[in-house]
């Protein structure tokens, strides 16, 4: 595998801060619209079901994961919910955005198809530990 770019620490920290901001704003908006906290606890990890596509190969899994962990789909769902008055759409969109924000805040970014341990926020998991050990 070719050397994949590792973002500078400042960029990573800024993106993680953005994720934290989205998480806080989404949870606050969820509370403001009177969202059901049982629904929140049930759905907060739902986007990670994308990992079930691992048997299809890492490249396919990375694509599915990245689509599900993009802010575009929850934004569209929330906009449709607001515009149409369909009551369940906005709370689900806010839960979805909160999940993505939490992932970003914790350092889990969009996956590279060549290596799912490499994300737009840097390395994760064993690959990160190995890179740190090699840097010493």
Descriptive terms for the model:
3 strands, three-stranded antiparallel sheet, 136 residues
Descriptive overview:
- This protein has six helices and three strands.
- With 136 residues, it is mainly alpha-helical.
- The chain has one domain.
- A three-stranded antiparallel beta sheet has the order 1-2-3.
- Helix 1 runs antiparallel to helix 5 (89-105).
- The model has no long low-confidence stretch (mean pLDDT 89).
Q: Percent of residues in helical segments?
A: 55-70%
Reading the helices and strands in chain order gives HHHHHEEEH
Which strand order do you get reading across the main beta sheet? 1-2-3
On the 0-100 scale, what is the average pLDDT? 89
Q: What does the overall shape look like? A: globular
Number of strands: 3
Note the gap between the termini. Answer: 22 Å
Radius of gyration: 16 Å
Estimate the strand proportion.
Answer: 5-15%
Sheet bearing the most strands, described? 3 strands, antiparallel
Number of domains: 1
Compact description:
This protein has about 140 residues and is mainly alpha-helical. Helices cover about 60% and strands about 5% of the residues. The protein has a three-stranded antiparallel β-sheet.
């Amino acid at each position: 595998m070719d050397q994949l770019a590792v973002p500078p620490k400042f960029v990573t920290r800024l993106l993680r801060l953005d994720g934290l901001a989205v998480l806080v704003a989404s949870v606050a908006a969820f509370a403001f619209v009177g969202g059901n906290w049982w629904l929140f606890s049930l759905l907060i990890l739902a986007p990670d079901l994308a990992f079930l596509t691992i048997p299809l190969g890492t490249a396919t899994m990375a694509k599915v994961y990245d689509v599900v962990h993009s802010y575009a789909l929850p934004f569209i769902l929330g906009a449709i919910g607001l515009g149409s008055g369909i009551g369940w759409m906005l709370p689900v969109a806010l839960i979805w955005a909160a999940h993505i924000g939490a992932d970003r805040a914790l350092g889990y970014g969009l996956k590279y198809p060549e290596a799912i341990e490499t994300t737009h926020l840097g390395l994760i998991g064993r690959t990160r530990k190995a890179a740190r050990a090699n840097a010493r």
